[in-house]
């Protein structure tokens, strides 16, 4: 029987898990009703679309609502309801959750806050729950987390707390350059690990020169026979290398917990281990669920 | 009476000048029939649209065709007819022009080549004519030219020759980030010279950190009250500063001839003079015409 529901509500997708009182996953559901497609009054129906089968069938005066713990963009200002950011340093689990009123009395929705930082200004929303999942499972963690993506996050954590973080728009820059700039004619899919490694090395050796290494991809394709795969590997290696150069003070001499099991994270693992950095790999989905469980426990919603 | 026609045929626009035998401009015409809108068989009609009134009204067996000297993207592979790149180092005027056959016997069209470089791979098409214009007017020039734009060009020239050049996609990066990235919500028009100067200084002081200074613009707007004008000034200052950092070996200790009279070039002049670099300003349109005149002369088409 469903004791509570965990929700990861991002910009593009909604993912929920129905859990029993012992924290076992009974079912997992996803839909494409992400924040980007919803007005505020669309969230409750989108949630019910996936959750109805896990709620009591009948509503009576004694119906006990099912707790729903939500992380992610549903808590943005333009989301379901704003869950204000929690400033770092802080423990990223459960504190600051916002209760959202619902028309359906079977729901008791709590949205978790994101994290904010003043200097330099930065924010995250969703990733804090993955971080909470990792810190909950490894309370003695003292090191750096890297969450590669459209907006990569680099996080310094110790003692169960997030101390400091930084966002780098590497994935968005790659998408803009490879799909919308003059390089779109030149950059394609495929793999070229040697070209990737060389580009990472060049970016780390001469981070100031990053801008001079973009247009030559186009020129070399015009003048010679640069393959789309090699051009793509050079572009991604150059950008990931530039990201590593920018974040060097954060990772140097640290262990890095890399959250992500996809091809992008493989590239980060390759680049970091190439710099002699010890890397551990973690599954983002599993950590999100672990973080939602930690928040559920912290909110006092543990089963009696 | 029109002795020849000079054409600057870019991606977006076509500009032509009718000149007399003494090189005086009789008329100037523009249209939006740039390379981006034309198939190969569309060039001659587009040229005739603007040029007909400067050509002999009647065609007879003794009609002498009017030379038309074209620079720019009309000579690209996907243009009217490819005018292969001239490799540097070279004198950028007239050599390598390609004769294009026309249906109209009143036209004698020559397309000027762009310039190419092998290491690092680079190309230009159109800018070489502005450079030729400057070098023709100042044969003793020994220094650096900077042509800011979507793809900024930095050129080392001496002895009337282009020795080396580099392309930096600064303008395209600014457009992508300010119009298509998450920063589009944050970055707007308007001026903030102090924020621009500070961003240039920060970029030059810490070029490796450029990537870390993008997302904080968004975060500061979310958390505080960063104005769109200040965010825009920081973004453009950060990118131009990063460009200067990347090209430092090219401009340091040199005089820089800045080609461009628009607001963008004002920003480059401000950034360069802030670094103690002596800057001279030059009008791009006037230099293009001067370069086309130099090419016309070199092609042996000077008036008898």
Structure description:
- The structure is a homodimer of 304-residue chains.
- Chain A folds into two domains: 4-139 and 284-298, 2-keto-3-deoxy-galactonokinase, substrate binding domain (Nucleotidyltransferase, domain 5); 167-282, Nucleotidyltransferase, domain 5 (2-Layer Sandwich).
- In chain A, 34% of the residues lie in helices and 23% in strands.
- Chain A contains nine helices and 14 strands.
- A six-stranded mixed sheet of chain A has the order 3-2-1-4-7-6, with helices on both faces. A five-stranded mixed sheet of chain A has the order 12-11-10-13-14, sandwiched between helices. Chain A has a three-stranded mixed sheet with strand order 5-8-9, with no helix packed on it.
- The first copy, chain A, is elongated.
- Chain A binds chain B through residues 77, 85, 116-118, 120-123, 151, 166-170, 172-173, 176-177, 180-182, 207-216, 218-220, 222-224, 242-243, 245-248, and chain B through 77, 85, 116-118, 120-123, 151, 166-170, 172-173, 176-177, 180-182, 207-216, 218-220, 222-224, 242-243, 245-248.
Question: Percentage of helical residues of chain A?
Answer: 25-40%
CATH topology of the largest domain in chain A: Nucleotidyltransferase, domain 5
CATH architecture of the largest domain in chain A: 2-Layer Sandwich
SS elements, strand count of chain A? 14
Straight-line N-to-C gap of chain A: 14 Å
Instruction: Kindly name the structural category of chain A.
Output: alpha/beta
> Helical segment tally of chain A?
9
Biggest interface, chains and residues, is: A-B, 44 and 44 residues
Number of spatially distinct domains of chain A:
2
Q: Determine Rg of chain A (CA atoms, Å).
A: 21 Å
Mean pLDDT across residues of chain A: 94
Overall shape of chain A: it is: elongated
Just give the CATH class of the largest domain in chain A: Alpha Beta
Oligomerization status of the protein chains: homodimer
- Give me the CATH superfamily of the largest domain in chain A: 2-keto-3-deoxy-galactonokinase, substrate binding domain
Q: Can you list the strand order of the major beta sheet of chain A? A: 3-2-1-4-7-6
